[in-house]
Amino acid sequence: MKELVEVLAKNLVDFPEQVEVVQTTKDHTIVLELHVAPEDMGKVIGKQGRIAKAIRTVLKAAATKDNIKVILEIIQ
Q1: Which keywords does the record carry (predicted)?
Q2: Class in CATH terms, 2-75
Q3: Taking a C-beta distance cutoff of 8 angstroms, is the pair 46, 55 a contact?
Q4: Beta-bridge partner residues of 26
């Protein structure tokens, strides 16, 4: 899951070297914190949150086959 978010985010932003994903696990839930440069926040979130919603949809589809829950938090 962590690698999937990294690949998606690095292809969206202007500063891919500043993309960092931190993964923590609790019970059957994976929490992913996506850290990007302040200038790239808009590119990762998108208009009205469409890009962020699409990333979350892809994560949930990947997590469904493993029967786990995934939460994505986008942080500056």
Answers
A1: Cell shape, Cell wall biogenesis/degradation, Chaperone, Cytoplasm, RNA-binding
A2: alpha beta
A3: no
A4: 29
Q: Are 33 and 22 in contact (CB under 8 A)?
A: yes
| pLDDT tens sequence across 12-52 | 999 999 999 999 998 889 999 999 999 999 999 999 999 99
What are the DSSP calls for 4-70, one per residue? Answer: HHHHHHHHH-S-GGG-EEEEEEETTEEEEEEE--GGGHHHHH-GGGHHHHHHHHHHHHHHHTTT-EE
pLDDT at 66 over 90: no
Report the pLDDT value the prediction gives residue 13, as an integer from 0 to 100.
96
- Reported pTM: 0.89
